[in-house]
Amino acid sequence: MAKTSSKASEKKGKGTKTPATQFRLQVPDAKAVYLVGDFNEWNETEYRVRRYKGGVFIKKLELKPGRYEYKFVVDGVWTSDPANPMAQSNDFGSENSVIVVS
Q1: Which one of 2.60.40.10, 3.90.1150.10, 3.40.190.10, 3.30.420.40 gives the CATH number of domain 3-101?
Q2: DSSP letter assigned to residue 1
């Protein structure tokens, strides 16, 4: 599930803090997971998600406040976030996960 972390990271040179938004997915058998969304124009190769023990995949992004739709691409298959109940129907007959960053 995506969430805004309580830990803030400081952007270089600006002195302002932007909370990191964490995207997490557990898929023990996956070889490669990517994060896609309207924040990166649904680019399926830009944000590879790092694998941790137990098949947990985590990606942190600094996103500006707003509403975002996203999915994970798990071994080439577009998948909504099963841990996030917030969703929006899309033009492809499936749903995108939704996160609101404040």
Answers
A1: 2.60.40.10
A2: -
